[in-house]
Amino acid sequence: MRVSKSQLAEHLGVSRGRISQLIGTGLPVMPDDRVDLADACRWVVQHLRPDAQGAVAVRQAWQILDWLRMTSAELEAAIEKACGPFARSHGSED
What we know:
Low-confidence stretches: 89-94
Helix content: 55-70%
Largest sheet: 2 strands, antiparallel
Order of helices and strands: EHHEHHH
Shape: globular
Number of helices: 5
Strand content: under 5%
Radius of gyration: 16 Å
């Protein structure tokens, strides 16, 4: 999934400026100036130390990677657990 640098900053809980710093140290960016979310999260986990400064980004990156690895059924169950039951529309009319 491709995201903008601003979206990546939001996902990782860091500033847009911090994302620019990380790009300067090797965070991969696509030719269209967007970032592959999974690749960026793997890079963050591999290159940032989970100390006070990198703790939030590393924790968020691990959480995103976990969500990306889920099957659709697992993801649906996790959303239901977090948000409560939700209506499903399967194209049938009542």
